[in-house]
Amino acid sequence: IQRTLVLVKPDGVSRGLSGEVLRRIEAKGYTLVAVELRTADDALLQQHYAEHEGKPFFQPLVDFMKSGPVLAVVAEGHRVIEGFRSLAGTTDPTVAAPGTIRGDLGRDWGLKVTQNLVHGSDSEDSAAREIALWFPSLAR
Ligand code: ATP
């Protein structure tokens, strides 16, 4: 059975939307395997976002992600990787479809699309890598 790493980003936590994100994951029928509020450091975030290193938004993204606590979640279920990305909506909250987390709850505050409430792993390889990074005890 598939697992994915979800992060409620600092904007989601500070706006009090952690519970809403968990509610949507559970309402969809996925199981919560791990839920932990943490403040990430540079080392963790640089590994987490390694594929974006060198891009202009990389450092602002890392700085934003360590600006406050994030809620790290491992969710489980059949096709949960694709399923959570569908729940989240597209990267840019302005155009993310209504009904999605980003579409319903996110907007562009003039800070481009760095602050888009949630992260979800985008493939089985990313999910395995990200879960091992955030929850070493769940690596498999
Ligand atoms: P995530 O992986 O967080 O679910 P995603 O797959 O929709 O998001 P990616 O292209 O993997 O988006 O980018 C990772 C994150 O980097 C985005 O969620 C967003 O926070 C930030 N980001 C992406 N593109 C930009 C950009 N052009 N300007 C600012 N931030 C960006």
From TrEMBL:
Primary site of residence: cytoplasm
EC number per UniProt: 2.7.4.6
SUPFAM superfamilies noted in UniProt: Nucleoside diphosphate kinase, NDK
GO biological process, one term: UTP biosynthetic process
Reactions listed under catalytic activity: a ribonucleoside 5'-diphosphate + ATP = a ribonucleoside 5'-triphosphate + ADP; a 2'-deoxyribonucleoside 5'-diphosphate + ATP = a 2'-deoxyribonucleoside 5'-triphosphate + ADP
InterPro entries in the record: NDK-like_dom, NDK-like_dom_sf, Nucleoside_diP_kinase, Nucleoside_diP_kinase_AS
Family note: Belongs to the NDK family.
Task performed by this protein: Major role in the synthesis of nucleoside triphosphates other than ATP. The ATP gamma phosphate is transferred to the NDP beta phosphate via a ping-pong mechanism, using a phosphorylated active-site intermediate.
Protein name: Nucleoside diphosphate kinase
